[in-house]
Structure formats: structure tokens, C-alpha cells
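**Backbone description:**
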Amino acid sequence: MKWLLEQGMRIWVSSSYPVGFFIPPGFVRETRSKSELEQPQSSFLSVDMADKLFSLSLPVGSTKDHPITCPMGSLAPPLDGLKLPPMLVFVGEIDVFKDTQVEYYEAMKKANQDVQLLSFPGMGHAFYLSAEMNPCTSVQTASLVSGIAEFVKKH
């Protein structure tokens, strides 16, 4: 956990409960994933827009393979060597970053970390931000909140 914080990794770790959430992770690699190439882009978030944001947030000279944006990659410390709280990862099924988010989840499982994946059909990246404007999104956001509550109760 200390290494993640030193690298500027932003994860939501509850102070009352020893758990963490990635809402949504937004992990990427320098090489585009299938979902980045094939999922529909939106005015809310395009791959090009995300690239600009990553270039502004990563250390100068870094690529998207940096451990902050690719904690499951070869530049990051091995996940099985980290002491992490139970983690909950959220993935929208039509999120442009879906593939790398699922890859992170699978890497955590392989490293014997306590991790759970919640998947939201028909939802894109940060879908919960428009919950008040879209009834379908509102239902999925309620499911997200329920998933968080169940995860916290479990741990």
C-alpha cells in the first residue's frame, strides 16, 4: 500500500473499513487494447482525451506503461508482493478501458489478492456520473451502491 501511495496511486481506501475500491480504475497500457480500439467513443470520454489526461498526470517522460496507469504491468512491483486490503473493481461493459481493467482484476486474482469484480452491462466509463439524467444509468448506479455496501459488509 505504501508503494501505491508513494507513486501517487489514487485508490479509495475506507478509513472505517479495511477495503479499497477502484471506481472505475481506468488502467491502460501504451499499446491500445481491443476495447480502446472497438468500443464507441463519447463526448464525455474519448481515447484521445484520455491520452492527453494521462500525459498531464504521469511523471515527465513516462508512458502509459507506468505503474500508476498499469499496476499489473512489467514496470510495476509484483502484485503478489504487495500487502493490499480487499479490493472491489468496477467495470462498465462498454467502457473503453474495460480490457485493461479486467486484466488488472485477473492479475490480482493470480497474485492471490482478495479482489472482486462488479460488471455493469451497457455501461461506459464513469457511468454513475449521469445517473440523474438517465433512468437506465440510475438503475445501474443503484446496483453499484448496493455492490459497495455488500462488499463493505463482507469485509
